[in-house]
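Subject — a protein and its fold
Fields — amino acid sequence, structure tokens
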Amino acid sequence: MHSVTADDVEQLITSARELIRPHRVGDRLFGDVAAVLLTDAGNSFGGVCIDTASGTGFCAEHSAIAAMVTAGEYRIAAIAAVWQDEQRQLYVLPPCGRCRELIRQVDPGNLDTVVVLGHRRQTLLRDLLPEHEWPQPQQNLSPPPNRGT
């Protein structure tokens, strides 16, 4: 397991920023959000978002995860996503719910992935996705009401 350091966090943010290359197609914007992840093996993978009108696009985290899986890795030590406004101010973005669930489903150990929320702010995926266990069956305490016809 790769132990995530403050230097790793800074490198993830810097590397993600370097991937941002916004490209407008009509009213859609491609590549304006970038993500970089660090695997347990110490390898980095990056990706950018693809925004489409038909909903077939995907987040930058999905792109980075796809690159990681293509390389045969599944365990994410840390992940960061960034966006830059028109004044080039950088924002670190939390993963959306869909991305959180994808990270979890790629490997059960990814619940311990460090999610970068800022230069000095991180949390574990399990804390962003607390209800990740499949629910237990419920015991009926009383029979259902008789709804005769």
About this structure: The chain has one domain: 6-128. The beta strands are 23-25, 28-39, 44-50, 76-84, 90-93, 114-118, 121-124.
